[in-house]
Amino acid sequence: MTTTAAQPVSVLIPTIGRIPLLERCLESVLACDPPPDEIVVVDQSGAADVVDLLRRLGVTRLRRVACDGRGTAAAMNVGLGAVRHDTMLVTHDDCTVDRAWVGVGARLAAAAPGALITGRVLAPRDAEYVPSTKDDPVAREHTGEVTTGLLYPANMVASRVALVELGGFDERPGLLVAEDNDLCYRWLIAGRRLRYEPELVVWHHDWRTPDQLVRTHVAYARGQGAFYAKHLCAGDRQVLDMLRWDLRQGLRAMVRGRLSRTPRWQDPYREMVVWLLVGLVCGRSESRRLARAQSVAGRGGYPSRRSRR
After folding, report:
1. What keywords are annotated for this sequence in UniProt (predicted)?
2. What are the angstrom distances between the C-alpha of 87 and each of 126, 157, 170, 199?
3. pTM given for the model
C-alpha cells in the first residue's frame, strides 16, 4: 500500500545523458514509497536519448527540462525555475536512492522549514573506491560553522525559495565541480541552517576508470582553488584557514601515498597541493574579469546572473 509524503515534494535530477545510470536512478526514485509529486530531469546532453528514456518509462509525473549550460550549477539553477514545489529532493544520475528517501526527505523538511539537509552517500558493497561518499551514523547540526565540504549535493533536501534568496548556484567556469562547496559556504556564512541526517540515504555508483578518477580529483582540487580565489578577491579572509588546511592535508597525502604505495587514484588529496594552487591563480584572474564585467554592466545596464554572485 502506497503511503503519502508529509508534504508534496519535487525530485530534481541533473544529467548529462548517461542513460544506463540515469535509468537506474529513475527506477529507484519511482520505487520510493511514498512517491514524489514530480520528478524533474534537467538534461544537459543535447541529444534525444533522455527524451527517449522518459517516453519509454511512460510516467506522467516524470518530465524533462532542457539546459544549454554546462555543469551542475547551471542545471540546478534551471531546475530551481522548473520545479513546482518549494521542497526539493536532489540526487544525481549516477546514484540510486533508498526506498524511503522521498518520505524521509519530506518529513525532515517539514521538521526544519527552510533548512538545507544532506545525508549519507554510500558506496556499493562491491566497490573498491568511490569518490564523494559519507557514512556517518550520527546526525549533526552544522549551523553556525564557517566551513565548506559539508554538503553532499547528490543527496540533498532544500527549499527552492531559500536557495533562490541566496542567489542560487554560481555558474562561473572555475567552480564547475566546486559549486556545492561554494553554495555550502555561502549558506553557512549567511547564518542559515544546515543539517546532516544519516537516515537520508543514497548510493553512489561510480563509473570512472583509475585514470578518470585522477582527472576527477584534479578537477576537484582546481575547483577548490577557484573557490578560495573567489572569496579572497571579495575580501573574505575567513577562507584562509580552510585553504591552509587543504594544503596541509595535500602534503600529508603525498607523503603517505609514497610511503604506503597507495594507488594515486584512491586518494583525492594527492592532487590537492599543485592543482589547488593552479585553481587559485586561474580563479583570481576569473574573479577579476567577472568583477570588471560587473562594473561595466553596473554603469550601462543590469549585471548578468553569473556576475551578480
Report:
1. Glycosyltransferase, Transferase
2. 33, 7, 21, 18
3. 0.92
